[in-house]
Design brief:
Largest sheet: 7 strands, antiparallel
Number of helices: 1
Helix content: under 10%
Distance between the termini: 20 Å
Order of helices and strands: HEEEEEEE
Oligomer: single chain
Shape: globular
Radius of gyration: 15 Å
Number of strands: 7
Strand content: over 45%
């Protein structure tokens, strides 16, 4: 099934250019049932709660730290963060996309 133009427009999330110590959504909230994507541009540090994530570094340099260990990141790096890493933090002059699974599994057919 195709989508009407207004349905496609509803899938476009807000554009965030400012630095923030929280992840900012890329997709509209309606997508959370399927997939979550956030942008991280830390002012000082962005802490992400435990859970599987893929971090794609778009620009700059920084580091991801979890449980006392740190890994450097620079433009083009991709990092898989397992749930077992616990809460993790992104620091530096970096811009990254954080991709995570759905908040809850969508209901199947009844």
């Amino acid at each position: 099934r195709g989508h009407a133009p207004d349905e496609v427009d509803a899938l476009v999330g807000p554009r965030h250019l400012e630095r923030s110590d929280t992840v900012l959504p890329v997709l509209p909230r309606a997508a959370d049932d399927y997939f979550r994507m956030h942008v991280a541009r830390p002012a000082t540090a962005v802490t992400v709660p435990a859970g599987f994530a893929v971090v794609v570094t778009l620009a700059g340099t920084g580091e991801v730290s979890a449980d006392g260990a740190a890994s450097p990141l620079s433009r083009g790096d991709v990092l898989a963060v397992p749930y077992g890493a616990g809460d993790w933090t992104l620091r530096g002059d970096v811009e990254a996309v954080v991709c995570r699974p759905a908040l809850a599994a969508p209901e199947g057919p009844s």
